[in-house]
Amino acid sequence: MITPDAPGAPDVPTCSAKGCRAAAVWVLAWNNPKLHTPERRKTWLACEEHREHLSQFLGVRGFLKDVVALGEWVQPEGSERR
Ligand SMILES: [Zn+2]
After folding, report:
1. Is this prediction's pTM over 0.90?
2. Record's superkingdom (predicted)?
């Protein structure tokens, strides 16, 4: 996987859950229609343990678009990671 050389970016992508340092296994693609154009995708990374938790967090808000295995994720153009 190719990661942009952002300062301080870890070599191994880690889970986006608060306080979790586990290696990410899943990519959660989401979009907030109030802030983002429909084709825009924000992504969160999740370990096995937090996939459900983060999916629900986004799901109840209607933001969740897709959950993809990290190895299969292709970053769409114009999207950003946080
Ligand atoms: Zn986690």
Report:
1. no
2. Bacteria
Q: Give per-residue pLDDT as tens, 27-59.
A: 999 999 999 999 999 999 999 999 999 999 999
Residue 56 alpha carbon to ligand 1 centre in Å: 14
- Protein residues near ligand 1, an ion, with CB under 5 A: 15, 17, 20, 22, 47, 50
Closest CA to 42 of 4, 79, 2, 3: 79
CA 47 – CA 33 distance, rounded (Å): 26
Domain positions in the chain are 10-74
